[in-house]
Amino acid sequence: MATHHLSALSEHDEIDLVAAVDVDPARLETFRAGNPTMRGYTDLHEMLNTEKPDLVSVCTPPALHVEQVKQALRAGAWVWCEKPPCLSLAGYDEMVDAEGTNGPYASFVFQQRFGSGAEHASTLLSSGELGTPLVAHCQTTWYRDSRYFSVPWRGKWETEGGGPAMGHGIHQIDLLLHLLGPWTEVQAMTGRLQHDIDTEDVSTALVRFSSGALATIVNSVLSPDESSRIRLDCSEATLDLIHLYGHGNENWHYTPAPHVTDQERIARWRTPERDEPSSHRWMLRELVTAMRAGKRPPCSGRDGRRVLELLTALYKSAATGRAVSATEIDPDDPHYTVIHGGHPEKLTRRGKASTT
């Protein structure tokens, strides 16, 4: 992921690359090879004290995010941190508590909500142009083999924080929330059906939104025919996004309801004013603009927390066998501190599940 960040940072006119940090000196030198002016460090604290950067990009395993983000914020740097933000809501709130009153802020990478297709869809939905959202489907069905999970921190609750819901589907879920807004309850099931890992390798959920819309969410790393998809059936049209790891205008499809016959209106749905794919580059532009203005950027604070709230409720529902409301997980809830609530075995069972 650091290479994606490096590409976006290198292309931004207002950004000077000053340093890179990695605990592995050989890997650090390989990373710096194309940017020899970047100074190399093997210690984050030393880099922060020496370079005093304005912005720090964090591309480390999820279990390291909280301490590294807090360290950067307290050194006065804004932060651009890879997903998932961290392993729990408690950790997320720790990072927010380390922010300043008017910055620096930490923004978390959910680049799929950016791009002209997503911008256009959001505008159509918020304006009511597509009618009332009724039914939604959010799908991240990917395939990962055993070699993928041979990386030491993957597939473990204490270092990755969850399975495909947390590590893969989080992007589509964030985009779904960006398009549909607040949710009220979730009912979920998870299981470990194939891989020899600690976390789940598949999850399903039913979600009710504040608008009344009902959604299904499916996350899998067991699916040879890989796809990422969001489908929204509204009273005036169906919106369908089908892609894999990123989308452009060509991936967004609009099908009018039978009673909608105005061809100019339909043409407006299908022709955004510009064509720019989802990307780290677009998100970085928004972040730098917020930095210049001293304002909270997208995907930070309350906005960045929403997807982690839903994921925590998803895991709690799967562990307890009941619906979980959007407001019930507070600091006294065991799932607030540890996303599996202290009972990971309840999230990786096979066959018929018991309820508690």
Automatic annotation (TrEMBL):
Q: Which InterPro entries match?
A: Gfo/Idh/MocA-like_OxRdtase_N, Gfo/Idh/MocA_Oxidoreductase, GFO_IDH_MocA-like_dom, NAD(P)-bd_dom_sf
Q: Which domain of life is it from?
A: Bacteria
Q: Where is the GFO/IDH/MocA-like oxidoreductase domain?
A: 121-239
Q: Which residues form the Gfo/Idh/MocA-like oxidoreductase N-terminal domain?
A: 2-102
What GO MF annotations does this protein's record show? nucleotide binding
The record ties this protein, via Gene3D superfamilies, to: Dihydrodipicolinate Reductase, domain 2, NAD(P)-binding Rossmann-like Domain
Record PANTHER family: D-GLUCOSIDE 3-DEHYDROGENASE (PTHR43249:SF1), UDP-N-ACETYL-2-AMINO-2-DEOXY-D-GLUCURONATE OXIDASE (PTHR43249)
Q: What is this protein called?
A: Predicted dehydrogenase
According to its UniProt entry, this protein's organism is Actinopolyspora saharensis
